[in-house]
Amino acid sequence: MSSMRERMNRLRGSQEAVTEGQPADQPESAQAVVPASARQETAAGSSLAAAVKGDDHEAVWTKLQVTERGNEWGSFLQREVRYSLEHRHGHHMLSELADTALHLKAFHSDESGLAAPAMDNLLFLDLETTGLGAGAGNIPFMAGLAFVEERQFVIIQYLIRHPAEERAMLADLQDRMDSFQYLVTYNGRTFDWPVLAGRFIMNGLDRAELKLKHLDFLHPSRSIWRNTLASCKLSYVEEERLGIHRVDDVPGSEAPAIYFQFLADSNPAPLEGVFVHNELDMLAMACLSIRFGRLLDNRIAGERYAPEKPEEWIRTGLWLERMGQTQQAEALFRIIMETDPEGEPSLLLLAARDKKIGNWERAVLLWQKVAMKGHVLYTSVYEAHIELAMYYEHRAKQLDTALAYAKGAQRVISDRAHLHRADAKRRAEQEALSNRIERLTRKLSR
Amino acid sequence: MLKKKSLLELIDDLRKNENIVNWHEIPPQEAQTRPIPESVDPRIREALHKRGIVELYTHQETAFRIVAAQENIVAVTPTASGKTLCYNLPVLQEIARDDSSRALYLFPTKALAQDQKSELNEIIDEMGIDIKSFTYDGDTSPAIRQKVRLAGHIVITNPDMLHSAILPNHTKWVSLFENLKFIVIDELHTYRGVFGSHVANVIRRLRRICKFYGSDPTFICTSATIANPKELAEQLTGNPMRLIDDNGAPRGRKHFVFYNPPIVNAPLNIRKSSTIEVNNLAKEFLKHKIQTIVFARSRVRVEIILSHIQELVKNEIGSKTIRGYRGGYLPKQRREIERGLRDGEILGVVSTNALELGVDIGQLQVCVMTGYPGSIASTWQQAGRAGRRHGEALIIMVASSTPIDQYVVQNPEYFFDRSPEHARINPENLLILVDHMRCAAYELPFKATEEFGPLDVTDILEYLQEERVLHRNGDMFYWAAQSFPASEISLRSASQENVVIVDQSNVAAVKIIGEMDRFSAMTLLHDEAIYLHEGVQYQVEQLDWDHKKAYVREVDVEYYTDANLAVNLKVLEIDRTNDRGQAAVNYGDVAVNMIPTIFKKIKLTTFENIGSGPIHLPEEELHTSATWLELKQVDPEIGTKTLEQLLLGIANVFQHIVPVLVMCDRGDVHVTPQIKAAHTGLPTIFIYDHYPGGIGLADDVYKRFDEVRESAKNLIRRCPCKEGCPSCIGTEIAGMNGKHRSMQLLSLL
After folding, report:
1. Is A418 within the bounds of a domain?
2. A202 neighbourhood in chain B, CB within 8 Å
3. CA torsion A85→A88→A92→A98, rounded to 10°?
4. What is the CATH number of the domain that holds A348?
5. Using beta carbons and an 8 Å cutoff, which residues of A are at the interface with B?
6. A276 and A419 together in one domain
7. Which of A9, A441, B401, B531 is at 20 to 30 A from A137, Cα to Cα?
8. Are A20 and B481 within 8 A, CB to CB?
């Protein structure tokens, strides 16, 4: 087809051939090794890339514990890894699922007639796809599933050798899903499930809505760690909060390039890194299930993985409250008040919650803590002053106190004036404050 | 207070004006109607009655009947003839019959889609049936999007949105695609050139997806008057079409007047400014409270005319009742102006061709055009803005001194006797086709034997496989790349690898203000070039050719820049030749090598050359289609120097006339003369498409060359100048009897 290439190059005005599919050089991470946690458990053992030479692809597949499977739609590959429930992954032991899974029912508390979540009705799912988003051309080339069976944590990883195997793989996956009640994912609501649903349609399979109840742990993770972690990516959350340290992990973003290379040369060795990455993601989801189950069971205080920062305590409490666990939430709020993190900006979150439900006493206390002890350059100090000024003006009807706080806010603004440009928002803020002071002064002079 | 004159009185006054060069009267037409067909759902009938519609115009009735027989139609209707009922009636009828049915409406712009939704929802409300129609565009909120996908009976969108958001995510639109009964394409005539060629491919992708979901929708297209509506619709949709042109809408008497401003400098053939004449004419009508629309060709021109007219009439009627209308106004502002025009609160509007499209502003009494709008079709559309169903209407076209304006006003038969232009597309342009095959493969795997347009596409599939964009397995090709191809392809871009124009006037808020194709950028965005964008001057501070970015900063200077481009043409392949003895006309592929050399700074007021500088850019090569004219035998007495001048002059005329004849923008076709063409050594004039691979313009010139040549000769002959002027063959030809000799040369062809 070089004549077509020549024509295209001529029309594009480019001299050299342009390859748009993927970078020509293979990613370095193709040399990935199995992480320590997996090494003891699996027979995959040492680094495959080093162990297997030449074109002996069969040997690589065997080493990877990959076997061929088939159904009426055709064949595909499957890798199976089993972990003992006594396996410890970071802070948690997989067996903890047994008594924590139940508490995840809070995620679907408003629905009746559901089987309660239990260790053996959870299905963990994580896809590795050829691109981003849920567009029609994004193909899941690997689908990882995990579940507990016969006191073992079983990980099944499907792999398609080429896109034509997709239908057979999806049909098998669909069959397996039927035997579970809960689907556990990380960002599955916006990614994994819509992608799968689209693929079922594209492959002419059953298009029913998701029958399983979805437990997407990205959302609670964001609720709790939004500000205290630099990122809520699974690999980041597990390292910072679950005590899991991946070694030589192949980032998910490199998986497509590795797969396209495999499509081109059929050499399975570099896929090992992708298998392991996917496997670790599913172990991490199991640990997150344990973590959220424990939080919902109020087994937090005193544990070594208790929240580290006051903001995390507060956000955990607020999340528990949203999940209907008001008592647990209140217990956490009390702990926060006891530890007395003075000047902590996140106290405003709790104050806002108290204000909303009319718990004025504590709200005022919290605002005062922030207003008096906070760093003068924090926006929170200004906001606390304003809240107090509003409270004393409209609720407590103590106009002089209100004016004092309003003037305090004015001082905060002038103290940090040099830090910010006077944009529209700040000018509006300043104007509102001036109006407030003027109004209070007027009322007081009557 | 002066006595208000009626339009009839003003028309009589105008008849005495000595600058009128042609007066054409279009007789009134009675409405031709037929009863609303029996089969129409009683609820729809009732809703129509409420709107005062008790019978259908013939074209509406025909459309309904033919669509009911599941034939595809293209309805050609002038402005304000009730064309929306041609599609709304069959669509609403079908959805009333079967609630699961779906329809997709395509409009070229978001504004038109919004208009249509409002109009449609009014009828639906009166019908009392729960039919949901939604617009789906960049402004649709994510919450609504979900609803549109699942429950929208009628989805109103634009081709760009279809291309980049709907088709690549078709699995989210299952209920639309499975039940799609109708695809409505309004303003069909706007889908021409590069844009139309892209859209034809988008529709191929759409049909492919419909087929996957088992639907086979009927196409309903509407178009303004062009020469080839049926052919264009068939090319765009890939389906056979029935043409409906039995327009039954009534219209009043129309006076179509050509106005040529008086000559103020006879030797140079310079006329009084058309803008000033337009101001004065418009003032007369507005003073007498006659609703008038003024068309101008650029946004800047709109603002200039607007402020003049407002100033002229402020004492009589108040400037608030005269408004401007152009791209760049906020949607809310536009809606307000449209409403003001409909209910008569606004008396006058000055607009760009933005109001040429189907936006509903009611019917005005007078239309004044500042210069020839560039095509016959466009002129009729603008003219259609004036003319109520009863009573007289007046259309005045005020010519500017450009050659084509002068040609039109002096050859009224060219305008009135000729069918309007052909709309050309070339969906098989290789670059465009390959782009959309990538998108199509992303959407659904390709079968090796699958069709995608009339060409065999196996070569392209194999090429994409080689590029590792597709993966082949058996006889199937699968998308196998990480990218999202639709986001890399713009339907409206002139060529690939556009130069992005970055405004860094405000360092804190650097913004992208536009794009330009790389060939044009060489002469318009080189370092130090003055670039005009929406009437604002920018200077290019740096053109980063490798990264295709031009960094500009707002300036206020007294000059513009003009770059010289050295062009070299190589013939790659001769496809067709028409030997005419002493000359030959050829069509084929050419390579155009371009390198900009220097630029000149030219003072705005006096056109003095006030400086110059070099341009350092690499040579660019454009492969495209061309028609070229070879002079095999030329009277040797003419001499090389003179011949060169004559070729330049003729090329100048072609550059003016060809875009008008083939209906494209001025920049889409380029004309280059060569005294000795590289492949033959003969004097040659090349006319080529300014887009890689060509979009069918040069092809059209080849096919209709006799017409092109005659038009060129006519332009030169009828030009009132003595020895050539900028309106015809240029001015550098004085003293050699240039006009006569140019026509002689043209006669050889």
Report:
1. yes
2. 171, 444
3. 10
4. 1.25.40
5. 1, 3-5, 7-8, 10-13, 18-22, 130-137, 139, 162-164, 194, 197-199, 201-202, 207, 256-257, 260, 263-264
6. no
7. A9
8. yes
pLDDT in tens, B600-624: 887 766 667 888 999 999 888 888 9
Query: Is residue A310 situated within a structural domain?
Result: no
Most confident of A136-140, A409-413, B528-532, B671-675: A136-140
* Residue B201, SS3 per DSSP: helix
Q: Which of B192, B190, B224, B189 is nearest to B76 (CA)?
A: B224
CA dihedral B336, B342, B344, B346 (to 10 degrees): 40
Range of the domain at A401: 340-445
Kindly list the distances between the CA atom of residue B722 and the CA atoms of B267, B273, B727, in Å, as whole numbers in the listed order. 7, 21, 12
Question: Are both A364 and A275 inside the same structural domain?
Answer: no
Chain B residues whose CB is inside 8 A of the A256 CB are 482
Mean pLDDT of A39-53: 46
- Contacts A4 to B, Cβ<8 Å: 459-460, 462-463
Q: Collect all residues with Cβ–Cβ distance below 8 Å to A423 and sequence separation of at least 6.
A: none
Confirm whether A95 is domain-assigned: yes
Q: What is the pLDDT of residues A401-440, one digit of tens each?
A: 999 999 988 888 887 766 666 666 777 888 889 999 999 9
The residues pairing with B185 across neighbouring beta strands, listed in sequence order, are: B106, B221
With contact defined as beta carbons under 8 Å apart, do B364 and B292 qualify?
yes
Strand extents, DSSP E, B555-608: 559-579, 583-603
B632-690 pLDDT, tens digit each: 888 888 888 888 888 988 998 898 888 877 877 777 889 999 988 888 889 999 999 98
Tens of pLDDT along B17-48? 999 999 999 999 899 999 999 999 999 999 99
CA distances from B87 to A403, B71, B502 (A): 66, 13, 42
Q: Does residue A283 carry a pLDDT above 90?
A: yes
Domain shared by A137 and A240, yes or no: yes
pTM (2 decimals)? Answer: 0.82
Q: Are residues A190 and A287 in the same domain?
A: yes
CA distance B357 to chain A (A): 33
Which of A3, A132, A264 is nearest residue B468 as measured by Cβ atoms? Answer: A264
Say how far apart CA B261 and CA B86 lie, in whole Å: 42
* H or E stretch covering B516: strand B511-516
ipTM rounded to 2 decimals: 0.83
Q: What is the CATH number of the domain that holds A259?
A: 3.30.420.10
Flag if A260 and B621 touch (Cβ within 8 Å). no
Do A262 and A366 share a domain, yes or no? no
**Number of domains observed in the structure of chain A:** 2
Structure tokens at B80: 């304000």
> Which stretches of A150-258 are assigned E, i.e. beta strand?
152-159, 182-185, 213-216
Of A8, A13, A135, the CB nearest to B442: A135
A307 in a structural domain: no
